[in-house]
Write a structure and sequence with these properties.
Layout: H1 2-15, E1 30-38, H2 41-50, E2 62-79, E3 84-100, E4 106-123, E5 130-149, E6 152-157, E7 162-173, E8 178-186, E9 191-198
Antiparallel strand pairs: 1-2, 1-9, 2-3, 3-4, 4-5, 5-6, 5-7, 7-8, 8-9
């Protein structure tokens, strides 16, 4: 799959013209992106937990049903120079297990998390369709774990509300204003992609 995606990027770049009136990333222009991520560590942990066994080999949860949303990403960036952009990234993800408790009641374990990070991106190249960059973001994250069942409920919150991300990404513009983006690295997901608009 990775080789296919890389081949598609190379093919698109090869077919694109190298000159136009506008570059993919420009000083004084804004970029908005909406994306979806894959390979969330916390979601993978909760999914594994839903199928776990206890020390006697019995299922830890009876009739588990796992569900998850995201990570979902919303990004804004403004070009303060020809190579540097400042902005903000918002990301959200959740996951839950619904299962049957020891008393035969419906019980659940739920997790959700949101982060709001200020971000700086360093852009490379001067292509009109292809915009590679590396980014670093820090900010605030908030969310909680909840466990409900057997007439009991518990709630846990993150001890350190510090958000952090660093990714390598690229935008491919199909017109002067509309394109796609993809990023890999340390964020709420190891990989993400979505749509991008420049104005």
């Amino acid at each position: 799959m990775k080789k296919l995606v890389l081949s598609l990027f190379v093919g698109v770049i090869t077919l694109m013209p190298s000159t136009t009136n506008a570059q993919a990333f420009e000083q004084g222009k804004s970029q908005i992106s909406l994306g979806y991520g894959f390979s969330s560590i916390t979601q993978a942990f909760i999914k594994t937990l839903s199928n776990s066994n206890d020390e006697f080999g019995d299922p830890l949860y009876l009739n588990p049903e796992f569900s998850a949303l995201g990570p979902i990403f919303a990004k804004f960036e403004y070009g303060v120079s020809e190579k540097i952009g400042f902005g903000v990234n918002i990301a959200y993800a959740d996951a839950e297990i619904n299962y049957t408790s020891d008393l035969g009641e419906v019980a659940s374990i739920k997790w959700w998390n949101t982060s709001v990070n200020a971000r700086v991106n360093r852009h490379f190249g001067y292509h009109d369709k292809f915009d590679p960059y590396i980014g670093l973001g820090m900010g605030y994250k908030f969310g909680k774990w909840t466990s409900e069942g057997d007439d009991d409920a518990e709630e846990f919150k993150a001890l350190i509300p510090l958000g952090f991300e660093t990714t390598f990404g690229t935008r491919i513009m199909f017109t002067q204003n509309i394109g796609l983006y993809t990023e890999v690295g340390l964020a709420k997901a190891f990989a993400q992609f979505g749509i991008n608009a420049k104005f």
